[in-house]
């Protein structure tokens, strides 16, 4: 079955540490996205990528970095510059013909 | 800046009732509108996608409508069941920087009481 796989499901980060969240899709979708979800704030776009080796900042890109070396993969690194990283992170993908989005199951990141 | 609003934030209904969830958006120049379901601690599951040229979409007990002129979409759930309890999110796709991104509402948390 096609879908999006996010790993790990839970992640704990120490102060000053960088962590990387994995996102892999086998839907053959061109576009991929990272969102952050906080209680009461809805989903906010961090980064997105339309094609391999190209990506753009979303609304809240500060303290995050991404890469898109393969069509199937779009990892997100939460750097030590992100001062409030505790949140639920969601990866999504879409085909560019109709922009119907498919989401992964999410990674919950907690700073300890 | 586009805004998507969902009212009410929470809704509780007895099992078997038909119900309507509301979504409004400020800019009528949307590309599409998508309804999602989110269970606690889980990702988003796509329910219905309505392109800007369409007026409604149906899937089983779900029917979503789109009225661009009034900036509104509704999700109709027929014969509600306890398994329908979840948070329902609507999202409008807008053009930006050569692609389309979704602007999300904050969701309506639905509880269906047995």
Would you mind describing this structure in some detail?
The complex is a heterodimer of chains A (112) and B (114). Chain A has strands at 4-7, 10-13, 19-25, 31-38, 42-51, 54-57, 64-66, 76-78, 87-94, 101-103, 107-111. With 112 residues, chain A is an all-beta fold. In chain A, the strands form 2 sheets. In chain A, strands 2, 4, 5, 6, 9, 10 and 11 form a 7-stranded mixed sheet that branches. The N and C termini of chain B lie far apart (41 Å). In chain B, the strands form 2 sheets. In chain B, strands 2, 4, 5, 9, 10 and 11 form a 6-stranded mixed sheet that branches. In chain B, strands 1-3-8-7-6 form a 5-stranded antiparallel sheet, with no helix packed on it. With 114 residues, chain B is mainly beta. Chain B is built from no helices and 11 strands. Classes of the chains: A mainly beta (112), B mainly beta (114). The interface between A and B is medium-sized, with 26 and 25 residues.
Report, as a whole number of angstroms, the end-to-end distance of chain B.
41 Å
C-alpha end-to-end distance of chain A = 36 Å
Whole-number average pLDDT of chain A? 93
Helix content of chain B: under 10%
Oligomer: heterodimer
- Binned strand content of chain B: over 45%
> Counting H and I runs of at least 4 residues, what is the number of helices of chain A?
0
- What percent of residues of chain A adopt helix (DSSP H or I)? under 10%
Counting DSSP E segments of at least 2 residues, the number of strands of chain A comes to 11
Query: Largest interface, counted with CB-CB under 8 A?
Result: A-B, 26 and 25 residues
- Rg of chain B is 14 Å
Report Rg of chain A.
Answer: 13 Å
**How do the helices and strands follow one another from N- to C-terminus of chain B?**
EEEEEEEEEEE
Quickly give the structural class of chain B: mainly beta
Overall average pLDDT of chain B = 94
Shape of chain A: globular
List low-confidence stretches of chain B.
Answer: none
Instruction: Kindly name the structural category of chain A.
Output: mainly beta
């Amino acid at each position: 079955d096609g879908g999006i796989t996010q790993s790990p499901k839970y992640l704990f980060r120490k102060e000053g540490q960088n962590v990387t969240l994995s996102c892999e899709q086998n839907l053959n979708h061109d576009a991929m996205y990272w969102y952050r979800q906080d209680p009461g704030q809805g989903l906010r776009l961090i980064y997105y990528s339309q094609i391999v080796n190209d990506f753009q900042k979303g609304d809240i890109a500060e303290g995050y970095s991404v890469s898109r070396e393969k069509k199937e993969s779009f990892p997100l690194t939460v750097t030590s510059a992100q001062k409030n990283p505790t949140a639920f992170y969601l990866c999504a993908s879409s085909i560019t013909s109709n922009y119907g989005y498919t989401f992964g199951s999410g990674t919950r990141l907690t700073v300890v | 800046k586009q805004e998507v609003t969902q009212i009410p934030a929470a809704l509780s209904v007895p099992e078997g009732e038909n119900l309507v969830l509301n979504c409004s958006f400020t800019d009528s120049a949307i590309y599409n509108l998508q309804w999602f379901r989110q269970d606690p601690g889980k990702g988003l599951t796509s329910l219905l996608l309505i392109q800007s040229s369409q007026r409604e979409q149906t899937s089983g007990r779900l029917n979503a409508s789109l009225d661009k002129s009034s900036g509104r979409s509704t999700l109709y759930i027929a014969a509600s069941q306890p398994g329908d309890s979840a948070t329902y999110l609507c999202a409008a796709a807008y053009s930006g920087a050569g692609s389309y991104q979704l602007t999300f509402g904050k969701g309506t948390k639905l509880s269906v009481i047995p």
